[in-house]
Amino acid sequence: RALHVAEQAAKIPLFGCRDCGDCSLPEMAYLCPEAQCAKNQRNGPCGGSRDGQCESPGRECVWVRAYNRLKPYGEEATLLERPVAVKDARLRGTASWANFYLKRDHTTKKPTQPEG
After folding, report:
1. Cα torsion for 38, 42, 47, 49, to the nearest 10°?
2. CA-to-CA distance for 107 and 9, rounded, in angstroms?
3. Planar angle of CA 17, 19, 22, nearest 5 degrees
4. Using CA atoms, how far apart are residues 24 and 32, in angstroms rounded to an integer?
5. Are 60 and 19 contacting, i.e. CB atoms less than 8 angstroms apart?
6. Is 23 helix (H, G, I), strand (E, B) or coil?
7. Which of 3, 45, 51, 78 is the most buried (most CB within 10 A)?
8. What letter would DSSP give residue 29?
9. How would you class 57 by CB atoms within 10 Å of its CB: exposed for 0-12, middle for 13-18, buried for 19 or more?
């Protein structure tokens, strides 16, 4: 509980954290898709974005912002080269740092299902 309180004390003012418990800040150039994307997209820009703008008026697409942050470092391709960060809704309201280290979040390799 103390870890969760400390995490929120830092992440809410810095990143607009929405307490999803399955943080994707590192994958998104420290922009929270939960807080900064109208559709909470973690798998790339939606079909509604146009010319770098979100379909919600007055908002720049968070994916464009992440791309622009990573481009000067030559890391922009990493946005879509990684597996999709599928959020586990059961983790909402829990400490994402704990979930990461306890291997409960989206970064943990899940067993693959046998085909057929």
Report:
1. 50
2. 23
3. 100
4. 7
5. no
6. coil
7. 45
8. T
9. exposed
Q: Is 60 exposed, middle or buried (0-12, 13-18, 19+ CB in 10 A)?
A: middle
Angstrom distance (rounded) from CA 107 to CA 83: 9
The tens place of each residue's pLDDT in the chain, 116 residues long, gives 888 999 999 999 999 999 999 998 988 999 998 888 888 888 888 888 888 898 888 889 999 999 999 999 999 988 878 777 788 899 999 999 899 999 999 888 766 666 65
* Cα–Cα dist 72/111, whole Å: 36
| C-alpha–C-alpha distance, residues 17 and 8, integer Å | 7
In this structure, the dihedral spanned by the alpha carbons of residues 16, 51, 42 and 31, taken in order and rounded to 10 degrees, is -30
